[in-house]
């Protein structure tokens, strides 16, 4: 191997390793000791820093020429980020909230742009060797998260600050559904280990058997069906693809038809129709129906630009129907539609949802193209493609969570970047590893600058709330105006402690910054110092925001 090839190979490996380590950090990082949002805020910080660093290192004109040999394909792929940016500027919603995302979600413009950049990075650095390394790495990470989730309810990793998040098996995601989904995807990925199981040594077979049991139990104790549903779709996809290679197109089509019928029964079951209704139509699913309906109404009444990125929660009160009030109660509140496609349509209208659908359709067609051109069953690619398919099921059933979403976009990048016999593609074209490190450091600095304001705000609120004093809370309320629910807490605390003048000041700031925030106007009504006009307007805004209650 020439010195030039050795240099490039070393550079490629350093970027690949940095990408894998970054993905693991984003998945498991939590900060309950420093930030008010212990899960999403640190994950957003890690995502932005990691993606900017990697993007600065590998994305350049030569990379784009390698990745996109068709200018039309570039346009189709970039429709999604273009629509995101358009929504951000055109929607009449709080810009900070649109940029960084709603409290407890953090799925605003910055998150989605970073996810898209992550897709590009993974597509550029793809190689067959990287794919094999990635699968083994993911299985290890999945095993680690499963063990953590199993031991968590036993009190092994009790974090007093998290209170209710300790006993449920919520892993590093703060929610049992997300933990279940991640382990479900890990279970699909472990099929890579089970391939040609009979030819492996007995010790190896026992190890694989225990890993599968571990994943099954880790999903079971979450008391969430998502992991099992995701695993079922993933393994079914692998089975059908294997059938295609082993038995030919006719047998494949016959069983694919049966699989399609099964999928239709699954969908009907979610909506309380068909033989699977008694299994699938659970209270949580019934609640999702109402969240979906509200999101669709937001899109129907705001078809071009939606209500604003990550602004579903501000409009929930207006667009929920009477059935939702009867089933969920008049005080129930949701910040997401619990279906990513509906979230897209409510946030940015039908253009954003359609561009997201087209993006995923391109990935799906790319995967089919690769499969039809293969002359044998490639276990690595099939495993990744099955994980990508199962992630699409997750998008249908749940909301986006940074710790889970990154993997869906990584799978997309691996499928899109796949090339037959791609081991010898030169992905990095720089004169030295030093240049890559300089670019990486530059990206890290830019990522810190972009993401730090959100992180600082979360720290400031955490410190003010922990101090639990009027001075600390009022100081926070005066200095920060970015997060509606945090300002509400401050104003309400001051009101309860009879500091009405200070409470009114913060409440005025709250309704000015977030005119569609129901709870802010509701608090204004009970302010002793509020003027008659302010109370009159507050009642008007409440009727506007929540006309059905």
Description of the structure:
This protein is mainly α and 549 residues long. It has two domains: 3-438, no CATH class; 468-545, Serine Threonine Protein Phosphatase 5, Tetratricopeptide repeat (Alpha Horseshoe). The protein has helices at 3-28, 40-58, 61-67, 71-90, 95-100, 109-125, 128-151, 176-189, 191-194, 202-220, 226-247, 249-270, 277-280, 283-301, 312-319, 322-328, 340-373, 379-397, 402-417, 433-467, 470-479, 484-496, 500-513, 518-525, 532-545. Helix 4 runs antiparallel to helix 6. The model is unreliable at 421-426 (pLDDT under 50).
Annotate the secondary structure layout.
Layout: H1 3-28, H2 40-58, H3 61-67, H4 71-90, H5 95-100, H6 109-125, H7 128-151, H8 176-189, H9 191-194, H10 202-220, H11 226-247, H12 249-270, H13 277-280, H14 283-301, H15 312-319, H16 322-328, H17 340-373, H18 379-397, H19 402-417, H20 433-467, H21 470-479, H22 484-496, H23 500-513, H24 518-525, H25 532-545
Helix pairs in contact: 1-2, 1-7, 1-19, 2-6, 2-20, 4-6, 4-17, 6-19, 7-8, 7-10, 8-10, 8-11, 8-18, 11-12, 11-18, 14-15, 14-17, 17-18, 17-19, 18-19, 20-21, 21-22, 22-23, 23-24, 24-25
């Amino acid at each position: 191997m020439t010195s030039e090839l050795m240099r490039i190979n070393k550079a490629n490996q350093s970027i690949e390793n940095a990408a894998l380590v970054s993905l693991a950090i984003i998945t498991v990082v939590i900060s309950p000791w420093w930030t008010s949002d212990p899960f999403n805020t640190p994950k957003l910080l890690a995502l932005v820093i990691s993606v900017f660093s990697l993007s600065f290192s590998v994305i350049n004109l030569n990379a784009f020429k390698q990745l996109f040999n068709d200018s039309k394909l570039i346009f189709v792929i970039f429709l999604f980020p273009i629509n995101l940016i358009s929504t951000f500027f055109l929607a009449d919603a709080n810009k900070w909230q649109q940029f960084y995302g709603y409290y407890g979600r953090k799925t605003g413009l910055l998150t989605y742009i970073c996810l898209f950049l992550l897709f590009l990075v993974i597509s550029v650095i793809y190689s067959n060797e990287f794919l094999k390394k990635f699968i083994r790495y993911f299985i290890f990470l999945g095993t680690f998260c499963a063990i953590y989730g199993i031991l968590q309810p036993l009190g092994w990793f009790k974090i007093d600050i998290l209170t209710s998040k300790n006993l449920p098996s919520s892993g590093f995601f703060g929610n049992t559904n997300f933990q279940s989904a991640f382990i479900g995807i890990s279970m699909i990925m472990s099929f890579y280990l089970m391939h040609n199981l009979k030819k492996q040594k007995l010790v190896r077979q026992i190890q694989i058997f225990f890993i599968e049991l571990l994943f099954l139990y880790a999903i079971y104790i979450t008391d969430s069906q998502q992991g099992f549903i995701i695993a079922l779709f993933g393994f079914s996809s692998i089975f059908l693809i294997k059938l295609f290679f082993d038995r030919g197109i006719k047998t494949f089509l016959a069983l694919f038809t049966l699989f399609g019928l099964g999928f239709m029964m699954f969908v009907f079951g979610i909506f309380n129709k068909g033989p699977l209704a008694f299994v699938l139509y659970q209270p949580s699913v019934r609640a999702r129906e109402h969240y979906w309906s509200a999101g669709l109404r937001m899109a129907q009444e705001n078809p071009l630009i939606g209500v604003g990125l990550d602004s579903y929660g501000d409009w929930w009160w207006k667009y929920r129907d009477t059935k939702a009030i009867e089933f969920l109660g008049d005080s129930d509140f949701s910040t997401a539609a619990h279906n990513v496609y509906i979230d897209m349509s409510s946030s940015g209208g039908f253009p954003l949802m359609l561009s997201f659908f087209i993006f995923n359709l391109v990935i799906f067609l790319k995967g089919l193209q690769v499969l039809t051109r293969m002359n044998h069953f490639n276990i690595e690619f099939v495993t990744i493609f099955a994980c990508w398919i199962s992630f699409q099921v997750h998008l249908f059933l749940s909301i986006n969570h940074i710790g889970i979403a990154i993997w869906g976009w990584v799978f997309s990048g691996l499928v899109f970047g796949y090339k037959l016999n791609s081991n010898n593609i030169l992905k990095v074209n720089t004169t030295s590893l030093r240049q890559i490190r300089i670019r990486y450091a530059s990206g890290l600095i830019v990522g810190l600058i972009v993401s730090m304001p959100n992180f600082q705000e979360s720290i400031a609120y955490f410190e003010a709330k922990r101090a639990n004093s009027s001075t600390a809370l009022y100081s926070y309320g005066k200095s920060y105006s970015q997060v509606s629910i945090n300002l509400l807490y401050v104003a309400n605390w001051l009101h309860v402690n009879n500091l009405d003048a200070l409470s009114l000041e913060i409440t005025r700031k709250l309704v000015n910054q977030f005119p569609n925030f129901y709870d802010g106007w509701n608090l204004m009504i009970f302010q002793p110092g509020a003027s008659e006009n302010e109370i009159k307007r507050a009642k008007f805004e409440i009727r506007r925001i929540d006309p059905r209650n």
